[in-house]
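Let us work through a complete example step by step.
Step 1: write down the sequence.
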Amino acid sequence: MNKNRVTIIDYGMGNIWSVVSALKYLSCEVEVSSDPDKIINSETLLLPGVGSFRKAMNSLRNLKLDEAIIKSVIDGQKKILGICLGMQLLGTMSSEDGETLGLNLIPAPVGEFSFQELHPIKIPHIGFNQVTSDPNSKMFKNLPKDPDFYFVHSYRMMPGNLIGKSAICNYGNEFLAAYENENVYATQFHPEKSQTNGLVLLKNFLAA
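Step 2: predict the structure and record it as tokens.
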């Protein structure tokens, strides 16, 4: 298997070209596709995303990409990385724009940052913040202790009691900044916009 061949799932929402640029910098062979058959037969998947959870899930379903992702990851045991909204879409559900079911590849719901909890800290969470990872994380290998990454989001997953390796960020309170379990990987932050730390993390994902 060619670990440097990545298919970016195109469902009309996401910073696709910044991700493409970062992967090509790492000498990846990159394909951008909205074809369910190509998604099912891909070796490595990347699900980016910015915007509304409900709109994104509707787009994935209309294109039949939700079924393709699940078939590839669950049945085919192919590796996937969800970024920002892409991470949230891997969750069980989100309360954004009304309750919407997700892909259920990460057994955790997505909820909005609470104004009452964070006040006077601003929402959305924008900028670089430190992330504390599990010491045995594959994605955080060869990174400094508590590296910083770039975030832009108003919704997040909570740490909970997830099985797998988790990374935490504190923005008023703790939330799930990254997750990995078997062939499912996810980051709430944008590694493609996080300079050297982000490139190291993407390289680690490819090698995992």
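Step 3: interpret the result. Helices lie at 16-25, 36-40, 53-62, 65-75, 85-89, 115-118, 195-207.
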